[in-house]
Amino acid sequence: MANRVQQDAFMDDSDDSCPLCVEEFDLSDKNFRPCPCGYQVCQFCYNNIKNNMNGLCPACRRLYDEKNIEWKIISPEEQKADIALQARKKAVARQKESERKQVESLNRKHLAGLRVVQKNLVYVVGLNPKSREEDLLQTLRGDQYFGQYGKIIKIVVSKAKENASGNSSIGVYVTFARKQDAASCIAAVDGSQNGDRTLR
Fold this sequence. Notes:
By secondary structure, the protein is an alpha+beta fold. The chain has 5 helices and 8 strands, in the order αβαβαβαβββαββ. The strands form 3 sheets. Strands 3, 4, 5 and 6 form a 4-stranded antiparallel β-sheet that branches. 11% of the residues are buried.
């Protein structure tokens, strides 16, 4: 028999579930009574107890005996009723999942208008470094630029844009390891001059 994946769960007394593995009884389990005391377990747990454990009923501690098993043969009507019940349960589960996804989607829409403040991220506009593109990231990480304020995790450079006067500048996102370093960088850079440009 294949191993069942164990998961945490709540047991509802109204459910027909195995008290050991908390799996719902299928139709054959509902009609399976392995002990005269009436303590009901699923066939999986019964076989596990009988073959891998002490072979005793968990309730009365009587040794399981094949001769004492009560087994009711399932009628076609019972099979049809069980199939209909399982279909209803699946439909309810699908409905709940659909409602959950709908709520999740609405929650995401509410978040769409929010800005996330990342306190270790600095965005600077107005830079026009003279370095070649292949050397630019190393230059920006250096002590002459953003490296002087602290350890940098990541730098992202936006493409150069031309302003109304025909001059081009780049925007730079700098992610520092510490938010204090980002604050120092903002305090030092905001409003400072880079050639004829004011950095923001």
